[in-house]
Write a structure and sequence with these properties.
Length: about 180
């Protein structure tokens, strides 16, 4: 069973990365439809790029759930852990390298994106193969996933005036 879980999580790295890359452009491709902005990056802020792991990972989780639900008791907790590890890794790696180099680099940004997804999927796998976790963790996972989705949507339209939410190209915040 662990081999099957591992296979699905490895495939997830490629699927999430590809869908996330497409979501980078989806808002623009849609003619800047505001509802699309909930799911896709609406500008070049770090915050908006974090959505590029959240929604594709939720989508992949929904697709893989039917195959994996009978193999693990920790699917939801695993996916929640994954979805929180990915943006944490992006933030840590992005701000570390830009502090060291003094600037941004597209190749480094893309590499960080893929590394963060791989780390998230690795964490997901490790949680899935654990003995059954408590019911409280399942509830916490659901609440955490919903809360993060709400924050991504809310801050797309009403972002705080903080550097994390500032478009590095235009200097604006959220949907301008």
């Amino acid at each position: 069973m662990n081999k099957q879980i591992r296979k699905w999580e490895l495939i997830g790295i490629a699927v999430i990365a590809c869908v996330g890359a497409l979501m980078h452009f989806a808002f623009e491709w849609s003619g800047e439809l505001r509802p699309v902005g909930v799911f896709a990056a609406v500008n070049e802020s770090v915050w908006e790029h974090l959505k590029l792991t959240y929604w594709p990972t939720l989508l992949y989780a929904a697709l893989s759930y039917r195959k994996l639900k009978g193999m693990t008791d920790n699917f939801t907790a695993a996916k929640a852990a994954s979805i929180y590890v990915m943006p944490a890794a992006i933030l840590a790696l992005f701000y570390a390298y830009t502090a060291i180099t003094g600037g941004e680099n597209l190749v480094a940004d893309i590499t960080i994106f893929v590394v963060a997804i791989a780390l998230g999927q690795l964490v997901s796998y490790r949680v899935m193969v654990l003995p059954q976790l408590s019911r409280r963790l399942y509830i916490l996972a659901i609440v955490g996933l919903v809360a993060l989705g709400v924050l991504y949507a809310l801050f797309t339209f009403y972002p705080p005036q903080a550097q994390l939410f500032r478009d590095s190209v235009t200097g604006t915040y959220g949907i301008s």
